[in-house]
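Intended use. Records like the one below are meant for learning the mapping from a protein sequence to its folded structure. Do not use them to infer anything beyond what is encoded.
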Amino acid sequence: MIPVHLDGVGKSYGPNAPVVHDIDLSLSSGEFFTLLGPSGCGKSTTLRMIAGFIAPTSGRILFGDRDITSTPPNKRGTGMVFQNYALFPHYNVAQNVGYGLVARKSPKDEKHRRVAAALESVGLSGYADRRIDQLSGGQQQRVALARALVIRPSVLLLDEPLSNLDANLREETRTEIRRAQRDAGITTVYVTHDQAEAMAMSDRIAVLESGRLHQVGTPREIYHRPATAFVARFIGRSNMLSCEVVEEKSDQVVVKLSSGVRLAASRPQEVTLAAGDRVAISIRPEHLDFTEAGSGALDVVVKAVEFTGSNCVFDVVAGDLELAVAVPDRAALPQPGDTVGLRPEPGRAWLVQS
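Structure written out for the chain above:
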């Protein structure tokens, strides 16, 4: 287990083509750290710079105290799991898993022992002699994971490893990956565009957009206290409200919507504001609830309702303001056309940077 540090790491393919903008990140030993963002945001490029497949244009990459920025990929001590698995179809499972040990000229007995242990760690004991084409997609992904783990890497790198699996298999396989990573205690960098996947698996998440780092934090911090409007919209669903600061308090601000309605919003401690400043606040749909018309912070008209199982999601409007509300399914809920009050849960409105 070693920490990983990215010190001002950037990548550009020309003066007007930056892919990654001077990223600073510090990963703790044994941490499961996810790079999350939409396609083209630079997350896979960042991962490949850590792996050594792409040379950074600027900055340094350190494994512990060792600067590995210019170290060849095969000398970095990393294990890589690719999106397309990259398994050898003419090898059986054991041969695929043991490939890295053969390349390192490990003794035969040690190779057999470590391959068996790696297969057990991913729940594939008894599959050593199977052909790759006899495995399901999820099993092939676990073979790829075992192959990365068997060399006992200092850092494990996974690039969109679940994107080719169906929804149920993704959930099952992500559990296997997280369990194997915890058991091995390996510092892990995981790339995905799937917010639910990142939230379920990660110790911490870095959210990227257009090559820029927006926020780093635990899943709860990222979800409940997004740093920017992009993070609020990208992670789950959020109601973004443009408003004006009326009063600043120790850890809150009182803001006024265009309708004149006033709300209290929590804010980061480092943000200073003054009355009259224009700001944006984020309120998650599940942090709003209905009351009787005239008794809430805001009166709205229900436009549509969608039953999703445990919850009902409502589209409501108040003038030119459109909001989403998610509440547990119950018998007495408003119907389309009803006018009702809407009240945010105390402390759940959060000020974000535009």
